[in-house]
Amino acid sequence: MPYATAVDGTRIYCEEAGSGFPLVWCHEFAGSMESWEPQARFFARRYRVITFNARGYPPSDVPSQAARYSQQHNVDDLDALLRHLEIDRAFIGGLSMGGATTLHFGLQHPEVARALIVASAGSGSDDPPSFRENCRTLAANLRTLGTDALHDYANGPARVQLRRKDPRGFAEFHRLLMAHSAEGSANTMENVQGARPPIYAFEEALKTLRVPTLILIGDEDEPCINPALFLKRTIPGAGLAVFPNSGHCINLEEPGLFNRLVLDFLTAQE
User: Fold this and answer.
1) Which residues partner with 51 through β-bridges?
2) Closest CA to 79 of 5, 17, 189
3) What is the rounded CA–CA span in Å between residue 235 and residue 63?
4) What pLDDT score does 1 carry?
5) Of 29, 85, 137, 182, which one has the greatest count of Cβ atoms within 10 A?
């Protein structure tokens, strides 16, 4: 079955390709499981690759209650997905919101996570009040304007790099973004993105993390640069790779470099 059921009954849609050791990818707020297509095609040659849509992203369920959205819900949904697929050990990777899910899953379930790939994570950590206000504003606009409210978000200063490098790829990213559920996006923006603590709040827990971790960041992704450096300095033995002239969507901007760095990292763990 392509659906896993979360603790609260929310259904999470997933797909998989390939065989071998499991590799799970968690998508960002502006993305979906389709965002991982360059990685699914590459890594399915060697791994059992699992992609899924978070709650609020059809064909996963879109709960209407705000209380059913949070960063912890995303972590618990990933745990439910792995249990559904009868996976007791996996490589876990994610970008942005999915990177936060990956990181916190590693903290809470280190016995399951064999290694972590944390890309473009930690936005909002340097100025939480402004970030939360922006999240509330965007959520309100989504509720009144629908996904038209996401046009400016898609063309933000850390996403123009994708448009410059790969116009066709950006057009596909934009098309998929406009097809999102406005209700699910609003609840996710306000209650997952806007309600999560800054990444610096987890310093003491991160110091104890012993799961091998690769941190990836674009050098033009300003909101995530300091959090990436913090993760590198805090997680014992973590590796950090910086993508030159790159913004937020580094797996789409530079899929060849992204895939090679991740493959080398996973090969080293094996």
Assistant:
1) 15, 25
2) 5
3) 34
4) 59
5) 29
For residue 56, which amino acid is it?
G
Q: Decide if 252 contacts 144 (C-beta within 8 A).
A: no
Cα(198)–Cα(174) distance, integer angstroms? 28
Q: Considering only CA atoms, which of 151, 35, 21 is closest in space to residue 91?
A: 21
H helix intervals, the chain = 37-43, 71-84, 97-108, 128-145, 151-154, 160-165, 167-178, 182-188, 203-207, 222-234, 250-253, 255-269
Query: Which pair of structure tokens corresponds to residue 94?
Result: 């994610």
- Name residues of the chain where pLDDT drops below 50: none
State the DSSP string of 60-118. S-----GGG-SHHHHHHHHHHHHHHTT-SSEEEEEETHHHHHHHHHHHH-TTTEEEEEE
pTM of the entire structure?
0.97
- Confidence at residue 162, expressed as pLDDT on a 0 to 100 scale: 97
pLDDT one-digit tens code per residue, 72-115: 999 999 999 999 999 999 999 999 999 999 999 999 999 999 99
170 forms beta bridges with none
Q: Report how far residue 150's alpha carbon sits from residue 146's, in angstroms, rounded to the nearest whole number.
A: 8
Q: Is 230 helix (H, G, I), strand (E, B) or coil?
A: helix
Give bridge partners of residue 243 from the DSSP assignment.
218
Report pLDDT for 190: 98
Q: What's at 203, amino acid-wise?
A: E
